[in-house]
Amino acid sequence: MKVEDCLPYMSKMYLGRIIDSILKEGIPKGDADRLREQIVQNKSELENKQRISSALDLRHMNRASRILFEEILTILLELPDMKAPDSDLFDLIIQHEKSIIERAEKEDAFSYSDENAIDIYQTVLQVALEDDDINESEFILLEKLRMKLKISRIEKRFIETRLGKFPKINNKTHSLDEFNEALRHLQSRGILFYCNKMEDGNVVVLPEEIASSLKPVLGFEMTSDAQRKLQDKLTTSQLQRVLKSQDLPVAGSKEEKSERLISTFTKSSEVLGALQVAEITKLCKSLPGVKVSGNKEDKIQRIIDFYSSLTTKEPEESTDTCAVYYQYFEELAARDNKKLLGLEIIGRDRDMEAAFEKATAYMFETKFNREPIQLDGVEHADGAIEMKNGELLLWDNKGKESVYKFPKSHINQFKRYIRESPKRVNVFLVIVPDLDKEACTQAARELKHSTETDTDIAVITATNLKYVAENWRKFDKKNFFDLKVFNYTGALDRQTLDQQMKLLLK
């Protein structure tokens, strides 16, 4: 979910926590609607990388709290939609902690480890934990020692457990009160959104925009599922070489080798770092949209970025390709060929435009319950719906990798569609990935005036159109979507859409 998608599901108290994290004290806050407006207006500050890095400076907290914060954020990043009901999230935290404790207690926990290396690391860690905490300088030193001794991240956790220090003293798991306090803290820092008005109950959300800036702060590269996809591209001998580089057993099938790297928390950058430059270059060439220029580190980062982008939502199983296209509506609008080709949503780059159009037609038919009509001829808008008065709503998809600014060529194109329509066009809807509000509003007004049909020209982002499709029934009292919601000339933002739905669907 994006920031704006969360806001309708948050009450005033939880909205206030977010706004307090980005606005100075003394600024008038207002009611819930005003708080939502302020969050949208200050979104750039909310997703600012420097702000997020500062908000996650947890050096003043004790070690057990830092472990809990890291677990909450890492588990959310692992979830395809980066959200979970608060009770489910707490259960996942406890399952994670218990799993590590149980694995550490097994006789074979260190069966493949270098005993001497384990003893050295454990001795140094025990001294550092005499005060039950680890400061920043101690952490840096321990991490350097861990890498020097080739102690895996899971072995580190096993050693902490052996010392009775994971996740807390005497290996006690975190309590519900501690979890709730951590959630409150992360909300007050403007990191997590608490959506307490959702159908599933209280849902904790890590918004997409914040997650992208959060990952480098946490050192999170990609989900386990994404790393499996990456490792599937490697040969058995390559995986064996990676395992050797990590001092891990090399026996087993390809799948077992891959899973061993996941279970020991080996990072994807470490996996790729064990390969030769020529192998990294070959891998880059096999991935759509990934450049092959630059040094080894540049190429590795591009591969990580590619796979990291693949699993940001839970794929829905469907035999209807249009339903799948609809799920990736925003990506189709933004022409995100890396993700769409990587997930095999489309087979070729040139399929992008047709898929975007099919997704829009599917949206109007299944989400708005309004069947598109067939337009005659070759040159016409991408779709049309007959309105209640017999006039038409026309739409045109303008997929683009950057911000849409309503170029002059489109003014002439849309004018032709409107004038040559067999029926009067009541509203012409332009669907784009992102927009320049000022440029689009000015161009829309110019087009409205020049059509001589008094047609409303509305420009809407794919995200906002999908928002209407998914949420209009919350405003509806007649079980009928009135297309007049789109009767507007200029850029249709979320606030305007909410006002239109409140007015026309009640």
Catalogue the unreliable spans.
none
The second-level CATH architecture of the domain at 353-504 is 3-Layer(aba) Sandwich
Strand order of the largest sheet: 4-5-6-7-8
CATH class of the domain at 353-504: Alpha Beta
Mean pLDDT over the residues? 92
Count of alpha/pi helices: 26
Task: Characterize the main sheet.
Answer: 5 strands, mixed
Structural class: alpha/beta
State the share of residues found in helices, binned by percent.
Answer: 40-55%
Net shape = globular
Description:
This protein is of the alpha/beta class and 506 residues long. Among the domains are: 224-308, no CATH class; 353-504, Restriction Endonuclease. 54% of the residues lie in helices and 8% in strands. The protein has 26 helices and 8 strands. The strands form 2 sheets. A 5-stranded mixed beta sheet has the order 4-5-6-7-8. A 3-stranded antiparallel beta sheet has the order 1-3-2. The protein is globular and about 85 Å long. The model has no long low-confidence stretch (mean pLDDT 92).
